[in-house]
Amino acid sequence: MTALRAALEVISLVAFGYFTALSAIYLVFTALAWRAVRRYRRARSYSAVEEAFASPLTPPVSVLLPAFNEEAGIVESVRSLLGLRYPEFEVIVVNDGSLDRTLARLAEAFDLVPARKALRTILPCARVRATYASRRHPELWVIDKENGGKPDALNCGIGAARYPYFCAVDADAMLEEDALLRVAKPILDDPGLVAAAGGIVRIANGCRVEHGRVTEVRLPRSRLAVFQVVEYFRAFLVGRIGWSGMRSLLIISGAFGLFRRNLVEAVGGYARGTVGEDVELVLRLHRYLRERGEAYRIEFVPDPVAWTEAPEDVATLSRQRRRWQRGLGEALWLHRRVAFNPRYGLLGTLAVPYFLVFELVGPVVELVGYPAVVASAALGTLSVKFFAAFFVTAILVGVFLSISALLLEEYNFRRYGDDGDAARMVAAAIGENLGYRQLVTVWRVLGLVDLARRRRGWGEMRRQGLGYTPAGGASKGR
Amino acid sequence: MTLDAVVWTALVLTAAGSLSVYLLAVRRLYLMRSDRRYSAGGERLATLAAALAAGDLEPANDPAQAELELLAELLARYSRQLTGEARSNIAAFFERHGLIARELAHLGHRRPWRRARAAFLLGDMCSQQAVEPLLRALDDPSRDVRSAAARSLGRLGSGRAVEPLVRALVEQRVPRAVGGHALLTLGSEALGPLRPLILDTEAVVRATAVELVGLLGDANDAGLLTDRLRDSAAEVRAKAARALGRLGAEEATMALREALGDRIGFVRANAAIALGLVGDRASAPALLEMARSDEFDPAHAAARALSRLYPELLWSAARDSTSGPHLAEAADLTAVAR
For residue A210, is pLDDT > 80? Predict the structure, then answer.
């Protein structure tokens, strides 16, 4: 009994320490994010976006869209890309062996005809079956290949890209008209220095979508999706801005990221056989450039928006979160040399250790900590009063952080104009701490179990489609 | 960690959370009111702004101070689409109300974002009074300020800005896209100071100057650019080839054909593109060979050039199964375009 009490005491202490450290980190990041977003908002008022759009010196970009079983939304997504405001770009859709009508829908909508295409073979990828050009849109190419997974499809797209930069976009994402210009701003400012840049991903469920554009921003009806809206604010507006400010950004969302092509080719492209290809690539770029002592930047830009569909059912959401956790684990394992290694600067001493301790292992600490703390209180090892006060404080920290992220969004972007939606977001910021976050913790632990079991594949993603015919699903980035 | 500390933390968090929600609500209310005010007065002010730009409004009829900022915002936006006398009227309005003086003062502000915003706004206020201070702002320590100043100098269309802008651009003090656009807005006036920079001692300066002359120049620049096809820096050779193509410089065809044999791939690629743009059908056999056997990018460029110059030759070559992927792609694309 004494041993059990001692063990519970140790676990409780670790859980308290973990929670206190995590809360402190998030509070610091929230403060950093306020500073950075305010600076960005000001800069937006004097950024020469129109001039960049009109300038022949703006570098051209290849937009890559890997698609697997995306018949529900592929046409709208491609339409949104073809309507981008950018001086010179091409759109390359890579149909990754879809089993549904993805290719047929593209062919109908864009008048595709078979046309041979020269492909670079620097990055290996599965066999290409056919390539198509569009009679209506000379800047559109569709590559039909055998299934090899999202990283494989992206590598194939890189092989087909003509331009020095490429922008990877999820097939179910819709970019805002100026999104490419805005995400390219760091590259326009410092072309030699910026290796990659990522934009923000927002949830489109509930929004009005017309011709591949979000025309009215509304909250989803599903409570689960509203929780994710608030969660995305925290992840993007607080987390990524914080890391970007410290030059240690680890994640550029697979849904929307711009990269220098020759650099990605030099590091070997996207890693095939992983589901965390977005984190893994960014980590590899960091390593490659730091090991060569090259000056570089990988940036997060908080305004260019990619709208994407969030899962609205528990099963799909659980699969997505398990996959993200597995992907993070795979990437961190592959680059374990970076962790706690001062040679990699803040990346090695702060960012990777943070992701390792708090994002990867953290859910286990939380999951073991909850029952241990309850048991400690029940056995009298821990004062019940203290336990109750700490429990309430933990919830309040979560609520405060979520509301801060909402406030950050409201003051700087104010995308959700409806007052009812604002009230629902406040309710969700409180409500998500009472069950939803704990559920996500369980899924993340299950993701680690999947990782330990060396589970492969993406799992089925059920999708409704955004304002169009409901049908099957596909893979998407975090 | 004591119980008291935890309780205090909880209380502080509750207060901070409540304050955040309160701020959220107050801000919503404030914005709702200002939106209402804006939509009520917006239409009238838009009419006023249009009349002011057209010179149909007496200074005595200028709006009250409360509406001035809104009107200034509208006029600044209109100025981006207007030319000639309308811009002078807008400048006169801003000068009359001391808004130019205010923004000029902000150019000396200690905060970079304030200086950058002032530099940006001055470009839309159309007043030539801002040119000299904006030229000085090209040397500001902040890149944002320099970029906004470059953009505004382009908008103000002052010939005095050409040389400093070219310098700022080639020295990479302002973003290429923005600085380049400003110079293109200034037009052929920029050519005078640009041409000598083609012979600068620094390769990066020469490359930028060559590129801009290609965008702004005319056939008279062909000789100067042709010489750069033999530059020691590959970047300059490639840009010179591209510029000659843009200018359609037929007299440069021999030199461009020679450049197809350059040891650097992207120079060969640019030479091929240029020959396609110039319309040199005599280079077709060389381009055909290049499309078949060169590295990816030059071969691709050669095939594309061939599709412009000699589609029949391209199609017949592409029928051969050993012709390679680039000729096949170019042939299929030409067929699709028809």
Answer: yes
Q: How many residue pairs bridge chain A and chain B with CB atoms within 8 Å of each other?
A: 140
What single-letter DSSP state applies at residue A61? E
pLDDT digits (tens, 9 = 90+) for A343-359: 999 999 999 999 999 99
A410 contacts chain B (CB < 8 A): yes
B21/A138 CB distance under 8 A: no
DSSP A408-449: HHHHHT-----HHHHHHHHHHHHHIIIIIHHHHHHHHHHHHH
How far is Cα B107 from Cα B212, in angstroms, rounded to an integer?
29
Under DSSP, the state recorded for A336 is G
Return the SS3 of A63: strand
- How many residues in chain A? 478
Determine the residue of chain A that is closest to B10 in CA distance. A393
Contact A57 B120 (CB under 8 A): no
Query: How far is residue A160's CA from residue A130's CA, in Å, rounded to a whole number?
Result: 12
Question: In this predicted model, what pLDDT tens digit does every residue of A340-397 receive, in sequence order?
Answer: 999 999 999 999 999 999 999 999 998 988 888 888 888 887 788 888 888 888 889 9
Q: What is the residue-wise DSSP string for A122-176?
A: SS--SPEEEEEEESS-TTEEEEEE----HHHHHHHHHHH--SSEEEEE-TT-EE-
State whether B328 and A118 contact (CB < 8 Å).
Answer: yes
CA–CA separation, B295 and B83 (whole Å)? 48
pLDDT at A465: 62
What residues of chain A lie within 8 A of the CB of B246, using their CB? none
Closest of A252, A213, A254 to residue A77, by C-alpha: A213
3-state secondary structure A68-132: CCCCCCHHHHHHHHHCCCCCCEEEEEEEECCCCCHHHHHHHHHCEEECCCCCCCCCCCCCEEEEE
Query: Does A474 score more than 50 pLDDT?
Result: no
**What letter does residue A306 receive in the DSSP assignment?**
E
A363 and A444 in contact (C-beta within 8 Å)?
yes
CA trace torsion A163, A167, A168, A171 (10° rounding): -100
Please state, as a whole number, how many other Cβ atoms lie within 10 Å of the Cβ of residue A27. Answer: 16
Confirm or reject contact between A116 and chain B (CB < 8 A): yes
Residues of A with Cβ-Cβ distance to B182 under 8 angstroms = 51
Contacting residues for B36 by C-beta, under 8 A, at least 6 apart = none
> What DSSP character marks residue A255?
T
Using CA atoms, how far apart are residues A224 and A227, in angstroms rounded to an integer?
5
Nearest to B13 among A58, A383, A393 (CB): A393
Instruction: Write down the pTM of the prediction.
Output: 0.89
Q: Quote the CA–CA distance of A401 and A397 in Å, as a whole number.
A: 6
Q: Give the type of residue at A295.
A: A
Cβ A118–B177 below 8 Å, yes or no?
Answer: no
Instruction: Determine the angle formed by the axes of helices A384-412 and A2-45, rounding to 10 degrees.
Output: 10
